[in-house]
Design brief:
Length: 165
């Protein structure tokens, strides 16, 4: 069965991916990390930012990426290395990637050493949705970090596949 599959959420990688991937052949499998442990539970970045300083969340997330890579050969592409940055809390100030440069470099070095690829998103904004309304809401949250899509492209996307006339 050709196509892409995603395998992520570090706590379930080994358990779920084996059963999911055994039946078929896939062109590529994406691995990603969306949550970190807090005690016996796992939380995504928005909740982690309520519990820990933002810089600590980024450091812990980037420290977990190499463990994910070295613990599973189920995926060939690492996706969402910027996942916690997408919901960076405004009260923490603007995200400075240089403050976590060593951690990013280490995670990327382990990725490269494992002969895996990095997924790179080229569409901005990456979230919450790609409609003009979603971009305007995101722009209000962080004017300096969001570039709204061009109106002509958003309209074309919205009308794609519809017949006119």
């Amino acid at each position: 069965m050709p196509g892409d599959r995603s395998a992520g959420g570090w706590p379930l990688v080994g358990v779920v991916t084996g059963r999911l991937l055994d039946p078929g052949q896939f062109d590529r499998v994406l691995g990603f990390l969306h949550c970190l442990p807090v005690g016996e539970r796992f939380f995504e970045p928005p909740e982690l930012y309520k519990r820990r300083p933002a810089a600590e969340v980024i450091r812990e997330y980037l420290a977990e990426i190499p463990r994910l890579i070295t613990s599973s050969d189920a995926f060939t592409v690492l996706a969402h290395i910027d996942y916690p940055v997408r919901t960076w809390p405004a009260q923490a100030g603007r995200f400075d990637p240089h403050a976590s440069e060593d951690e990013f470099r280490h995670a990327l070095r382990v990725l490269a050493d494992g002969d895996r690829a990095l997924e790179v998103n080229t569409q901005v904004p990456l979230h919450p949705d790609r409609t003009l309304g979603g971009a305007k809401k995101a722009e209000k949250r962080s004017r300096s970090e969001v570039t709204p899509p061009r109106p002509d492209r958003a309209c074309a996307r919205r009308h794609r596949g519809r017949r006119h006339g």
